[in-house]
Write a sequence for this structure.
């Protein structure tokens, strides 16, 4: 018997089971399409921009948007799984920054590209694993532990670069800039990662363990799930995906400069995941929602550029759209529990 | 009043007894009059034309099985749900479109099953929450303490207003909530299972408080599954079944059997069946298990096919036994053997691998993942033991279907999140989750906690079957009836110590109650 249990699902013992899932009359229409409200916001923003700026629908611009959101999408995919399991990692963007800087330095010193890719992914995984160890075995809140490591890693990235920009020539430019059948390689990588995450969450015991852990860690533990092992695996996975994102960013930019990626990138990914309906408390989450969230943020950023909004207003507008999307999403979620 | 044709006094549809007049009720004017309330959710009707009168200074018990419509009715009364049709008259005025806020202003308040105090604030602050006295724009702390103290002592509640709400026992939380609602001017107070999960002494304190409320002239709506309690406490009892009013009569005119028949619609008999005699080999052996002051030198030996009950006041040692046997916590000393093999202490995986299954009495925090579906909860442990890698909803449903059948889990809409089921159904899901995983020994903590009589009988049968399969069952219970019904042997504990051990054939219920209450070491 706990005091004031913050549970989303009251025991409606007397009502028929349909009771809890019933929408309030005002929002009765929305829940029938999953993420309907969010899609509506996305369509509105896209249509508005397309009408106002012809350049928006040009293939060049769309490809550009796709490349930009691909990096965020990879981070957001890992984060969706982690947050569904009740975890949190603020350091993925900074992990990506470190990976990016280390890879650039190694490439600039003449290492072969495959070796650099392997070394940086291993490094990123280790960083994720350290986060996992801290969170699992010290009981420091993930929020605090990973925020600390985010700052720490941002600093490390600056140290690695030592205040300079490091160019890598065209060593990875194929990944960053080429396309196959009109789709950028980066987007294909992102789609693969998203699809794999989606399949994992839906069709594997590993993914369902994440839902169980996020829903109620005690129950998960008592049910024979190796909760500690799962947590380590999830944080390591977040690490390796952060490393992948770092490499993707490096291949797109062709150089590592101070303050690329980092905490700001991570906040965008967190925002996208949360907009997509993944619960900060764990237990709920969908990759579809995350994809919509990522695309929405990318389109809004792009629209502001195209519409030549004064750059001072851009953050204001982005924040506003975030708020609207989150509110719409919350209305919808209140009326449709569970996944 | 005597001329009112609408008081449903006997079996539905038959004549009205004109006998119920002033003597039994000093104030014959109904405070709240509910007529023909219906409410449906989606297609399913939750309430079908329910009539009810609430009188000041009367304890009105509302009884029914899980899902009979008690909670929906209470929600309508307190403005959470708006009825589809029907009227609610309060103090001579008819109210439609009652909201929670308006209901509260009219003096209808409820203390829900899950207590809702701010755990970090003091008792005084909680009592005055939302109405803190101020002076010069800041909180006047002296007045806070005085007013809260008055509100508590006025109801005979002996709790220090300076205590932090988070440190209160469940019974004390209930009392503080009641004091808060009464202080806010509650004339109709709805108590939803206020004595569930309480020890006998705490339950007595709560019941005393309820009687005090009645004497103060409050109309109390009292929801409870405990028939004995209702019979001794209530002035008037209303029975609901499937959303319809079955019977509403003064408590004196009803007996326990009639109540059960009213609630279930048939007689429910939960009688000891003939079970195969326990085998000779030991299934679960616990040797001098100790942890802190909660459990001291506890030993018990359960043979395969035998049910041994640990009887003690609720909250005494039983939940600690759960923690120790399941491996959540490490005992200070002692040994656990399952099937003759020692189980390393303090490791959940070791306990599970040894064949020990522990079913918690706290299904909300330790039993089920409320947001996951029924099927997934049912198979949560079993699939992990089977080391399944893939999860496919259709295969899962196919595996879960027989378990649902065996355990009688009823969900109206396919496969909803388990949190939306009634308490009885959730308890069956919890049992199904564990008992279908090839257990060697089981620890069951209060398996019929918060379930209605019919579900209770079902669960008793399930436990019988479990023992008949040759599983060693250790049952922690706070109900002597349940122990007499299920156990072969009983160990009585008090304050963490074993005070007596009996074969169930060698003791009567009354002797058992005396031992359990007396708690004298022998």
């Amino acid at each position: 018997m706990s005091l004031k249990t913050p549970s989303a699902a009251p025991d409606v013992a007397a009502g028929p089971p349909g009771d809890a899932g019933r929408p309030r009359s005002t929002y009765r229409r929305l829940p029938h399409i999953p993420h309907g409200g969010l899609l509506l916001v996305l369509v509105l923003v896209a249509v508005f921009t397309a009408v106002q700026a012809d350049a928006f629908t040009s293939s060049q611009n769309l490809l550009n948007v796709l490349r930009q959101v691909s990096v965020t999408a990879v981070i957001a995919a890992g984060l969706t799984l982690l947050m569904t399991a009740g975890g949190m990692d603020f350091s993925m963007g900074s992990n990506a920054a470190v990976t990016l800087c280390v890879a650039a330095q190694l490439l600039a010193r003449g290492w072969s590209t495959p070796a650099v890719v392997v070394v940086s992914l291993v490094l990123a995984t280790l960083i994720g694993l350290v986060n996992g160890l801290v969170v699992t075995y010290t009981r420091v809140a993930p929020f605090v532990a990973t925020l600390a490591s985010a700052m720490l890693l941002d600093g490390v990235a600056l140290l690695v670069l030592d205040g300079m920009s490091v160019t890598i020539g065209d060593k990875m430019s194929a990944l960053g800039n080429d396309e196959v059948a009109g789709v950028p390689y980066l987007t294909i990588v992102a789609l693969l990662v998203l699809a794999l995450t989606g399949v994992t969450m839906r069709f594997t015991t590993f993914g369902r363990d994440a839902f169980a852990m996020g829903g109620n860690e005690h129950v998960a533990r008592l049910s024979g799930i190796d909760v500690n092992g799962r947590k380590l695996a999830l944080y390591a996975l977040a690490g390796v995906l952060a490393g992948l994102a770092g490499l993707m960013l490096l291949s797109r930019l062709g150089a590592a400069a101070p303050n690329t990626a980092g905490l700001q990138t991570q906040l965008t990914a967190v925002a996208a995941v949360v907009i997509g309906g993944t619960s900060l408390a764990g237990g709920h989450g969908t990759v579809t929602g995350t994809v919509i969230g990522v695309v929405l943020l990318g389109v809004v950023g792009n629209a502001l550029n195209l519409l030549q909004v004064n750059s001072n207003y851009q953050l204001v507008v982005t924040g506003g759209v975030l708020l609207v999307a989150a509110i719409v999403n919350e209305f919808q979620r209140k009326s449709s529990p569970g996944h | 009043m005597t001329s009112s044709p609408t008081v449903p006094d006997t079996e539905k549809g038959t004549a009205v007894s004109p006998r119920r007049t002033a003597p039994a009720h000093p104030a014959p004017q109904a405070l709240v009059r509910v007529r023909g309330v219906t409410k449906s959710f989606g297609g399913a009707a939750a309430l079908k034309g329910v009539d009810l009168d609430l009188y000041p200074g009367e304890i009105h018990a509302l009884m029914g099985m899980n899902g009979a419509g008690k909670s929906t009715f209470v929600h309508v009364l307190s403005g959470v749900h708006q009825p589809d049709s029907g009227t609610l008259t309060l103090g001579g005025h008819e109210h439609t479109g009652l909201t929670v806020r308006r209901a509260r202003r009219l003096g209808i308040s409820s203390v829900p099953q899950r207590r809702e105090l701010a755990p970090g604030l003091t008792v005084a602050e909680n009592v005055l929450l939302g109405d803190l006295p101020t002076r010069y724009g800041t909180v006047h702390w002296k007045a806070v303490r005085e007013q809260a103290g008055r509100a508590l002592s006025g109801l005979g509640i002996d709790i220090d207003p300076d205590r932090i709400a988070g440190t209160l026992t469940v019974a004390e939380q209930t009392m503080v909530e009641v004091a808060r609602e009464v202080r806010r001017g509650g004339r109709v107070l709805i108590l939803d299972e206020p004595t569930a999960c309480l020890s006998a002494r705490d339950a007595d304190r709560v019941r005393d408080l309820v009687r005090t409320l009645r004497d103060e002239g409050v109309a109390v709506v009292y929801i409870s599954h405990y028939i004995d309690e209702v019979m001794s406490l209530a002035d008037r009892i209303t029975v609901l079944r499937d959303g319809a009013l079955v019977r509403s009569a003064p408590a004196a005119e009803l007996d326990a059997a009639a109540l059960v028949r009213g609630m279930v619609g048939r007689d429910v008999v939960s009688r000891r069946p003939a079970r195969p005699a326990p085998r000779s080999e030991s299934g679960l052996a616990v040797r001098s298990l100790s942890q802190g002051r909660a459990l001291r030198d506890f030993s018990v030996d359960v043979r395969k096919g035998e049910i041994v009950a640990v009887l003690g006041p609720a909250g005494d040692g039983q939940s600690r036994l759960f923690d120790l046997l399941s491996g959540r916590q490490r005992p200070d000393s002692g040994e656990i053997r399952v099937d003759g093999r020692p189980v390393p202490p303090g490791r959940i995986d070791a306990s599970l691998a040894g064949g020990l299954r522990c079913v918690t009495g706290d299904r909300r925090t330790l039993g089920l993942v409320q947001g996951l579906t029924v099927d997934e909860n049912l198979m949560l442990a079993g699939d992990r033991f089977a080391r399944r890698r893939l999860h496919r909803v259709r295969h899962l449903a196919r595996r879960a279907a027989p378990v649902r059948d065996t355990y009688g889990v009823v969900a109206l809409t396919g496969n909803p999140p388990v949190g939306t089921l009634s308490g009885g159904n959730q308890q069956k899901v919890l049992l199904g989750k564990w008992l279908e995983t090839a257990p060697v020994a089981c620890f069951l903590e209060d398996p019929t906690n918060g379930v209605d009589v019919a579900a209770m009988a079902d669960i008793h049968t399930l436990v019988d079957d479990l023992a008949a399969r040759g599983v060693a069952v250790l049952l922690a219970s706070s109900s002597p009836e349940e122990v007499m019904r299920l156990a072969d042997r009983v160990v009585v504990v008090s304050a963490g110590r074993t005070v007596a051990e009996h074969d169930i054939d060698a003791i009567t219920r009354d002797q058992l109650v005396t031992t359990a209450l007396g708690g004298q070491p022998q």
User: Anything to note?
Assistant: Confidence is low (pLDDT under 50) at residues 1-27 of chain B.
